[in-house]
Write a structure and sequence with these properties.
Elements lengths: L19 E7 L2 E8 L2 E4 L3 E3 L4 E2 L22 E6 L7 H13 L3 E4 L6 E6 L4 E2 L7 E6 L5 H12 L14 E3 L15 H4 L31 E3 L14 H10 L2
Parallel strand pairs: 6-7, 6-8, 8-10
Antiparallel strand pairs: 1-2, 1-5, 2-3, 3-4, 9-10, 11-12
Helix pairs in contact: 1-2
Keywords: Hydrolase, Metal-binding, Metalloprotease, Protease, Zinc
Cofactor: Zn(2+)
Organism: Spirosoma radiotolerans
Length: about 250
């Protein structure tokens, strides 16, 4: 297995590109996202399909966002395919091996299954969230590492970013004045978006592979997030944390 390296910047679907801010409803709740070309991008690396978005609130919520039961992969199996054009496929295989070694999730190469994830070439690192029941994607640019791939698989399995927990304000301070214009909504909690997020017990996990670092999306070199004591922290893209693993085991018993 190739070494898994740390990451100096967060995952982005389209690095160095900004879209227009749009509003729509996701799971019956109003959200703000960026429209870059014809792609709806949420929280910088989460792809939303037209099926995810509605122009008005006419969706019944079951109270658990993308982590709800219908968005989990049946039988803990993720069917997948790898685009032959994707370079460095070892990062995908290593990321899959890491997930299988630490969680009950199993990856099976797709044959005729309708619901599956395709690993393909992208501008940056991005993915859909949860099980859609049809073809969905994990996009990997040339700079996306094995660690980034582990992170994106986390979204595919059903995880949101760690800092969007509803209780995160007890652990971190968001410095809105330092956030790059257009990315402010990436730092909202589920409550601020009107979504009910799935929060595993124990509070915010500073070791989570799904967490941004203190300086991610800073417009002035100052931290966008700090701990409550004012200290900063780095993101890690080495491995799933103990709490990441417990969360998945809870979601997929």
């Amino acid at each position: 297995m190739t070494p898994i390296s740390h990451l100096s910047r967060p995952e982005e679907a389209f690095p160095n590109q900004r879209g227009t801010l749009q509003s729509a409803y996701l799971d019956g709740q109003k959200i703000t996202y960026q429209l870059i070309g014809d792609q709806a991008v949420f929280e910088s690396d989460i792809l939303l399909s037209p099926d995810n978005l509605q122009e008005r609130n006419d969706v019944h919520m079951d109270g658990t966002g993308r982590a709800k039961a219908s968005s989990r992969w049946p039988n803990k199996i993720i069917y997948y395919a790898i685009d032959p054009a994707l370079p460095n496929q070892t990062r995908v295989k290593d990321a899959i091996a890491h997930w299988e070694a630490n969680t009950p999730i199993r990856f099976v190469q797709r044959t005729t299954q309708r619901g599956y994830v395709l690993f393909r070439v992208g501008s940056g690192c991005s993915s859909n969230v949860g099980f859609s029941g049809s073809q969905q994607y994990i996009n990997l640019g040339s700079n996306c590492t094995t660690g980034n791939t582990i992170h994106e698989i986390g979204h595919t399995i059903g995880l949101w970013h760690e800092h969007s927990r509803v209780d995160r304000d007890a652990y971190v301070t968001i410095n809105t004045a330092n956030i790059t214009t257009g990315y402010e909504s990436d730092f909202q909690t589920y409550t601020q978006r009107g979504l009910d997020g799935f929060d595993y017990q124990g509070g915010l996990d500073f070791g989570s592979i799904m967490l941004y670092g203190s300086y991610d999306f800073s417009k002035n070199g100052q931290p966008t997030m700090t701990k409550k004591d004012g200290s900063t922290f780095a993101s890690q893209r080495v491995s799933l944390s103990t709490t990441d693993i417990k969360t998945i085991r809870y979601m997929y018993p």
